[in-house]
C-alpha cells in the first residue's frame, strides 16, 4: 500500500500512516517529498513523526540530485 501511495503522490495518506507507526510509509513519505523538491518539508516530517529514526534522518538529509 505504501508503494502505491508513493507512486500516486499521496503524501497526506503516507503521513497519516507514518504517524501511526508505519516506518515504510515514513520512508516513502520522505522520498516523495524530496522528489517534489521539498527537502525541508521532508526533514520537518521526520522531526515531527520520529526524530529518533536514524535511517529517516539520513534519507531526509541526503543532498538533492541535480536535474
> What number is the mean pLDDT?
95
The coarse overall form would be globular
Structural class: mainly alpha
- What is the helix tally? 5
> Span from first to last CA?
28 Å
Low-confidence spans: pLDDT under 50, at least 5 residues? none
Largest sheet features: none
What fraction of residues sit in β-strands?
A: under 5%
Pattern of helices and strands: HHHHH
Rg is: 11 Å
Helix content: over 70%
Number of strands: 0
Chart the SSEs and their pairings:
Layout: H1 2-7, H2 11-19, H3 23-35, H4 39-50, H5 54-61
Helix pairs in contact: 2-3, 3-4, 3-5, 4-5
Task: Write structural notes for this entry.
With 67 residues, the protein is mainly α. It has 5 helices and no strands. It has helices at residues 2-7, 11-19, 23-35, 39-50, 54-61. The radius of gyration is 11 Å and the shape is globular. It starts with a helix and ends in a 6-residue tail after the last helix. 31% of the residues are buried. The mean pLDDT is 95.
Short recap of the structure:
This protein is an all-alpha fold and 67 residues long. 72% of the residues lie in helices and 0% in strands.
Features:
5 helices, mainly alpha, 67 residues
